Amino acid sequence: MSHDVHQVRSFDHPGEGRKRAKATPKGRQVDPTAAHEIEQLLGDRSRRRDLLIEHLHLIQDKYHQISAAHLAALADELKLSFAEVFETATFYAHFDIVKEGEPNVPPLTIRVCDSLTCAMLGGEKLLEELKKSAGPGVRVVRAPCVGRCDTAPAAEVGHNFVDHASVANVLDTAKRADTHAHLPKYIDYDAYVAGGGYRLLQRLRAGEISRENLLKALDDASLRGLGGAGFPTGRKWRAVLGEPGPRLMAVNGDEGEPGTFKDRYYLETDPHRFLEGTLIGAHIVEAPDIYIYIRDEYPACREILEREIAKLPAGGPVLHMRRGAGAYICGEESSLLESLEGKRGLPRHKPPYPFQVGLFGLPTLINNVETLWWVRDIVEKGADWWKSHGRNGRLGLRSFSVSGRVKNPGMKLAPAGITVRELIEEFCGGMADGHTFHAYLPGGASGGILPASMDDIPLDFGTLEKYGCFIGSAAIVILSREDSVKAAALNLMRFFEDESCGQCTPCRVGTEKAALLMERETWNRALLEELGQAMRDASICGLGQAASNPLTSVIRYFPDEFKD
Ligand SMILES: Cc1cc2nc3c(=O)[nH]c(=O)nc-3n(C[C@H](O)[C@H](O)[C@H](O)COP(=O)(O)O)c2cc1C
Ligand code: SF4
Ligand code: FES
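That is the input. Now the predicted structure with flavin mononucleotide docked in place:
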């Protein structure tokens, strides 16, 4: 008997007490047609639990949705409970779970970014207009920052991104069914090797450079983690190495902090420099397996990496590509580990730290894409070369993702310690026409907001903390007098509310309450400050701890906003 794939067969309760139970097992019954389809789709792929998210992607890609029947069949195939599969699938924004009786999801999805830079440049209006004009067979939904803030507003048609999106160019892209990622020109394996690439790795593997000398170069350069936390890289590698093996390595390519797009820039231009740094890291900590987690919003980066990894000579650690599924929190390192294990991205309590108990319970080296990208240059050119850059007493280089009201937004490689004023004038061609500098975010959504009058602070790790801000992933968003800082702070709070994993109350409830209070014409500053403090003090992870930074910055540095 054939069944509608999207229906799970109803069943009778097996009974209780002395009555004889019916011959039907407990729980959802697997539909034979759905089971067959899932078996075919998975083919000879491994049924390991940690591949759950990868398998959910297979279903979503093929059917544009995941029906309850397919979920039940997948659970059966992976020997997991339906609840485990359901809770994972529903955690991630890019999986569309369709329960029995619910309408199907239209075949094409258009996502429109409504995070800060895009909102400032018309993203919210675009979203509303597209919702009205997209027509049948197309679903238009909002999306948090997709890492293209320099070409805001950004929209995604299927897996194809439209820069400087308008109703006309988005609908035209949809009409042409141009729904696949476009690969930019980049330095491929041959070109990279021709430029001296992989020589450092070979010398390291051949023992011509000692592990200690390599680590010393990183220490001397004071390379710090560029994912946001700024932990000294050499020290982290030594800490992992100090733990008993086997050890693993995980690469954080989740880049979800609104305003940030530097990792995408490096992966889309020079991917092998990143891969060489990664392989060097794995060699140092003796990791036989490397898990590279790239956010779902970066399909071009994933395709480039898959193509280029295939060209690497045999031998060395195994590189496993893993695809995020639309959850900002999975950039937090312990949440990343949960996601790599195929689970919901709920941050873990620390300690133990990932270098002690990480992926699959093993000591794990976790680094950001850009941190690894710099390893080759720092070792080959030397720590002095790295430190020859810098300004205002700071040393090294920083990759600033600059967006907002400047003439030339984009990824700007600039000296660490540069001020925002210097960055705008020297690297961005000044403010956009008709705009006067009013405020800036020095470190993405979490790093606070400062007024233009405080434009002389060196931008680097450790320089902004005394102002209640931080540089994080160096995402600089420039606001002009056309923009409201209160509206900006509300946009950011709504982002955190949406992206909170919900695990702890101060963050889950605090972000929601704060957004409600901030929607009011008059802010209850005392109550908002108290709420912000509770979130900072009692949240489990950095999301909840930093979510109130923009809010408290506005209260502290923009008194004009509160004049009667
Ligand atoms: C809420 C939150 C989101 C984060 N998102 C990212 C991210 O998208 N990419 C990243 O590399 N690090 C992110 N981090 C920082 C990571 O937890 C971690 O510090 C980093 O991946 C370590 O690599 P690094 O030392 O090379 O920077 C995030 C942290 C928090 C608290
Ligand atoms: S602070 Fe927020 S994101 Fe972090 S664990 Fe708590 S609820 Fe989840
Ligand atoms: S792409 Fe829209 S804010 Fe970053």
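The longest strand covers residues 397-404.
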